[in-house]
Amino acid sequence: MRPAHIHFIISADGYKPVVTQIFDRTDKHITDDSVFAVKDSLVVDFKPLKGNPKAQFELPYDFKLASFEEAKKNGMKGATAVAP
Questions:
Q1: Which pTM does this prediction carry?
Q2: Superfamily of domain 5-73
Q3: Is the N or C terminus of the chain more exposed, i.e. has fewer CB atoms within 10 Å?
Q4: Domains of the chain: which residue ranges?
């Protein structure tokens, strides 16, 4: 079974966290997302993976994190570190 979409929460000390999702280009519901979250940059092509009994697909995908300093300089929302 192909994934329709996958959610990600990515964080690292000193960097603004990223909460996002990616969408399978072949999903029949990609055009009727109820929260209008589908953007072209988040639509991906999962590739069949052979020889791994625990996985059917693979997807090389890079995420870029902005440091809090960089985020604040560029006026990004959530540019302040949250105290632990």
A1: 0.68
A2: Aromatic compound dioxygenase (2.60.130.10)
A3: C
A4: 5-73
pLDDT digits (tens, 9 = 90+) for 68-81: 888 888 877 766 66
Of the candidates 3, 2, 8, the one whose C-alpha atom is nearest the C-alpha of residue 62 is 8
Q: Hey, how many other C-beta atoms are within 10 angstroms of the C-beta on 1? A: 5
Model pLDDT for residues 4-56, shown as the tens digit of each residue? 888 999 999 988 888 888 889 988 878 776 666 788 888 999 999 999 999 99
> Running DSSP on this structure, what letter comes out for residue 64?
-
- Distance, CA of 74 to CA of 56 (rounded, Å): 39
Nearest to 79 by CA among 67, 61, 64, 62: 67
Q: Which long-range contacts (CB under 8 A, 24 or more apart) does 18-26 make?
A: 18/63, 18/65, 20/63, 22/59, 22/61, 26/2
Q: Cβ of 28: how many Cβ atoms within 10 Å?
A: 8
